[in-house]
Specification:
- About 30% of the residues lie in helices and about 25% in strands.
- The chain has about 220 residues and is α/β, with parallel strands linked by helices.
- It has one domain.
Length: about 220
């Protein structure tokens, strides 16, 4: 299905519900879809905790929110199913434009490992994975033991950054759970470590470059 390019503004948090892949299943108290909508609509801007984290890196200080699009789909080769991002965000400061994909988490995990996702070894999945790894400049051989969702969400940011001719691509994990025993931070940590970088919270981490786009990831806790 071709992605629609004519978009309509939201009115309030409930406006986000109809955009979900399965509105009745995903729109529940205590789960990320509803909590993300409430977080961003309450701020009517970049939520304060994300602003504070962005300000920890000079590339993103004093950022202005230009646009935020809920449930934004990014097409990928090797199948008909796109990467459906919780939120696509464009920010700008005196340094330049940044494209952000928000992956929100509350009671959810990051889905299957790549090894499990590839279990049927289909041609389409191999094609998709090869494309994603190239886009995010992932060179480690450790991808099979990592979570597939982190890969295609970061790829979405890079793909859209290139389309917007942005300077930076940033994947933000907006976690509504503080406890590391419950929030699956270890999966994020392993992903960052595979780029030979040290994971930390509340700070953009540069993991590489794809063409002219600098690639960053960030973990933020939202209350």
């Amino acid at each position: 299905m071709k992605q629609k390019k004519i978009l309509e503004p939201t009115i309030n948090a409930i406006s986000w519900k109809k955009l979900l892949a399965d509105p009745e299943k995903h729109w529940q108290d205590g789960y990320s879809a509803k909590m993300t909508a409430e977080s961003w609509e309450a701020a009517n801007d970049i939520p304060k905790e994300i602003v504070n984290a962005l300000n920890n890196n000079e590339q993103f200080r004093n950022a202005e929110l230009l646009m935020a699009i809920p449930e934004f789909k990014v097409s990928l080769p090797g199948g008909t199913r796109p990467s459906q991002n919780d939120l696509l965000v464009l920010i700008s400061n005196e340094i330049g434009l940044t494209v952000i994909t928000i992956e929100a988490k509350a009671k959810e995990d990051f889905g299957p490992l790549i090894s499990d996702w590839l279990q049927d070894n289909s041609k389409g999945k191999r094609e998709r994975l090869e494309y994603i790894l190239k886009e995010i400049n992932f060179k480690s051989k450790e991808c099979l033991s990592l979570r597939y969702q982190l890969f295609h969400r970061l790829a979405s940011a890079v793909i859209m950054a290139k389309k917007f001719h942005a300077r930076n691509a940033l994947m933000v994990i907006q976690s509504f759970i503080e406890s590391d025993e419950d929030n699956h931070f270890k999966d994020f940590e392993k992903f960052v470590n595979a780029y030979d970088q040290t994971s930390t919270k509340e700070r953009p981490i540069k993991v590489g470059k794809s063409g002219d786009v600098d690639i960053y990831v960030m973990w933020v806790h939202s209350k």
